[in-house]
Automatic annotation (TrEMBL):
Protein name: Glutamine synthetase
Domain of life where this protein originates: Bacteria
Domain GS beta-grasp: from-to ranges: 14-98
InterPro entries attached to this UniProt entry: Gln_synt_N, Gln_synt_N_sf, Gln_synth/guanido_kin_cat_dom, Gln_synth_cat_dom, Gln_synth_I, Gln_synth_N_conserv_site
Similarity comment: family membership: Belongs to the glutamine synthetase family.
Annotated source species: Symbiobacterium terraclitae
Any matching Pfam family: Gln-synt_C
NCBIfam families assigned to the protein according to its UniProt record, in alphabetical order: GlnA (TIGR00653)
EC number: 6.3.1.2
Tagged with keyword Hydrolase: no
Any GO MF annotation of the entry: glutamine synthetase activity
Domain GS catalytic: 105-474
Enzymatic class: ligase
Length: 474
């Protein structure tokens, strides 16, 4: 049975009334188009759906706006969040004639997988992103020429211990003490279970869920690793599911890296490895932390290009409010075994030929997963091609708690950019590795940089509330 026949069969057997096709723009925001199933036929499933690319951030100008959404029939899954039985599919963004489009993030991820095979180094890469998020009871924010504020409400927040205008049972998550807390302190177990069950119903293999470190509703749900494009699809769908389940509970979710001051931020720790002919190329029982020389070169590439990479893996001004010392944030560009204060950690819980991998801890969940995974792969492959030894390059290993090292030792370590502006400037200077194999294009990188510079300008030219606290009465 062909994929077209399979999807048409699902439409008939499940009484599907609507087909919903999904894609992300250059910054990573999810978009969708809905088509009544009654007008769907085999020709549309293989020929795609026309749309206006000029209305999508980072895509085409109005004079060349005709584009096509081509369904990936392997991604068909039932969508429970809309009325009427609906089948959801991810799509590739194409130019007329179904030509490859350089700025389609999913297309970039596809080209990265193709380039990996062309190098002969490996035939597949595996990706296990861990996306953290906050669940709030409500949020209000506003920015104008005469006012700027945000206000977050969370029933489990420690700052609400003294409130008497609502039922207060005293079970609050203290600052930085939320990790793995049990009920009744963790009052979000049930909503995470509902999210987990919905993810499972949509094809995810969920391995665990738990409360994270911060107060006020920081959570994590882990799903099983997969290949690059599929893992990026799952990361995008994960955010869609988590947000919509929270909405059904009357709550709201944010993937902002640092929505709360004095609390840990949310990361997207990214586990990754390469394999060829079914063999994990990162494993060597005689190597440091069971890593092969190839894996160390890959680490060397990641850390060497990290300043530029972070423009893509940590792509918001808010990202760098998470990347500060003191909150387990990996600001030091070093690698280490089982050390969560390093930018790259080699998990040692179960070091076997099958499970050996590296974990890049710096990225956050605001990243476009297609671009972020592809960029990391390209950096790692550049490290392999150039045989960048991470130790010779000054990246460790550092097998101690970095946060408690003396200042003079810390001063010798290379660190992550301190702002989005620094990261974007690094990307301007260092992006040739992304262009290998036509995976990224100069056009896409220039578009991405221009969008980020607009965001930087928006922040830097507006007064912030904390500035009034610091300066108003001087």
């Amino acid at each position: 049975m062909s994929q077209v026949e399979r999807v048409l069969g699902m439409i008939a057997e499940q009484g599907i009334q609507m087909i919903d096709v999904k894609f992300v723009d250059v910054p990573g925001m999810l978009h969708h188009l809905t088509i009544p199933a009654a007008v769907i036929d085999a020709e549309q499933l293989t020929g795609g759906f026309a749309f206006d690319g000029s209305s999508i951030r980072g895509f085409r100008g109005i004079a060349e706006s005709d584009m096509v959404l081509l369904p990936d029939l392997n991604t068909a899954v039932y969508d429970p969040f809309v009325e009427g039985p609906t089948l959801s599919l991810f799509v590739d963004v194409k130019e007329p004639g179904l030509k490859e489009y350089s700025r389609d993030p999913r297309g970039v991820a596809r080209r990265a997988e193709r380039y990996l095979r062309e190098t002969g180094i490996a035939d597949v890469s595996y990706w296990g992103p861990e996306l953290e998020f906050f669940i709030f009871d409500s949020v209000r924010f506003q920015t104008g020429p005469d006012a700027s504020f945000y206000y977050i409400e969370s029933g489990e927040a420690h700052w609400n211990l003294g409130r008497g205008d609502l039922p207060n049972n005293g079970y609050k998550v203290k600052y930085q003490q939320g990790y793995f807390r049990a009920l009744p302190i963790d009052d979000q177990t049930n909503i995470r279970t509902a999210m987990t069950q919905q993810l499972q119903a949509m094809g995810f293999v969920v391995e665990r869920h738990h409360h994270e470190v911060a107060s006020a509703g920081q959570n994590e749900i882990n799903f099983r690793f997969s290949t690059l494009v599929d893992a990026a699809d799952k990361a995008a769908l994960y955010k869609y599911v988590v947000k919509n389940v929270a909405r059904s509970y009357g709550k709201t979710v944010t993937f902002m890296p640092k929505p709360l001051y004095r609390n840990s931020g949310s990361g997207m720790h990214t586990n990754q490895s390469l394999a060829k002919d079914g063999v994990n190329l990162f494993y060597d029982p005689n190597g440091y932390a069971n890593l092969s020389r190839l894996a160390l070169w890959y680490i060397g590439g990641l850390l060497y290009h990290a300043p530029a990479l972070l423009a893509i893996t940590n792509p918001t001004t808010n990202s760098y409010k998470r990347l500060v010392p003191g909150y387990e944030a990996p600001v030091n560009l070093v690698f280490s075994k089982a050390n969560r204060s390093a930018a790259i950690r080699i998990p040692s819980n179960f070091a076997t030929p099958k499970t050996t991998r590296i974990e890049f801890r710096t990225p956050d969940p605001m990243a476009n997963p297609y671009l972020a995974f592809a960029a990391q792969l390209m950096a790692g492959l550049d490290g392999i091609r150039r045989r960048i030894d991470p130790t010779e390059a000054g990246f460790g290993p550092v097998d101690v708690d970095i946060h408690h090292l003396p200042a003079d030792v810390l001063a010798t370590m290379k660190t992550a950019p301190a702002s989005l502006r620094e990261a974007v400037n690094a990307l301007k200077e260092d992006h040739e590795f992304l262009l290998e194999g036509g995976v990224f294009t100069k056009d896409l990188i220039e578009t991405f940089i221009a969008m980020k510079e607009d965001e930087i300008h928006a922040l830097e030219t507006r007064p912030q509330p904390v500035e009034f606290e610091m300066y108003f009465d001087h």
